[in-house]
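Technical annex, item 7. During the second reporting period the consortium partners agreed on a shared format for inverse folding records so that results from different sites could be compared directly. Each record opens with the tokenized structure and is followed by the designed sequence. A conforming record, contributed by the partner at site C, is shown below for reference.
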């Protein structure tokens, strides 16, 4: 697989972009689109560990960040090392730290994945969302999706 302009998350170095500052090597700019409201926060995580994806918090080496929601959210991450990653986003509208579900299974809040990986009978597999990051400056757009 060719390296793609992709997302890297480093919790210690994540920031909201002010203006359209292009990323530098080791940095990744992410635009999150199609949020249905500015309520709550956007939780983002990136991991190289296929066994824990999309529950990145189970990977102590994962990169995570939480930022205020908006109708469009732009993030900048720095210190991203080359590797094979997958990204998961959650629009946590009530900011309770978890993905709320209806009837225990249907997501009530927004979600998104790198490479716009499809959701079928559960979250996508790591390989469906994974991309190779070479360490160059990169940009990625992830569309937030809602089922309810």
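Designed sequence (site C submission):
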């Amino acid at each position: 697989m060719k390296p793609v302009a992709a997302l890297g998350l480093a919790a210690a170095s994540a920031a909201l972009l002010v203006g359209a500052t292009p990323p530098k090597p080791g940095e990744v700019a992410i635009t999150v689109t199609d949020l249905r409201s500015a309520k709550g926060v956007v939780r983002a995580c990136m991991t190289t560990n296929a066994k824990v994806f999309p529950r990145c918090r189970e990977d102590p080496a994962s990169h995570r960040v939480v930022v205020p929601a908006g109708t469009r959210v732009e993030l900048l991450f720095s210190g991203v090392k080359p590797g094979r990653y997958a990204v998961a986003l959650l629009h946590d509208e009530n900011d309770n730290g978890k993905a709320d579900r209806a009837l225990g299974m249907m997501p009530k809040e927004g979600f998104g994945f790198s490479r716009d990986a499809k959701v079928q009978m559960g979250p996508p597999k790591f390989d469906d969302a994974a991309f190779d990051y070479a360490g160059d400056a990169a940009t990625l757009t992830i569309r937030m999706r809602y089922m309810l």
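The longest helix spans residues 126-129. The longest strand covers residues 83-92. All partners now use this format for quarterly exchanges.
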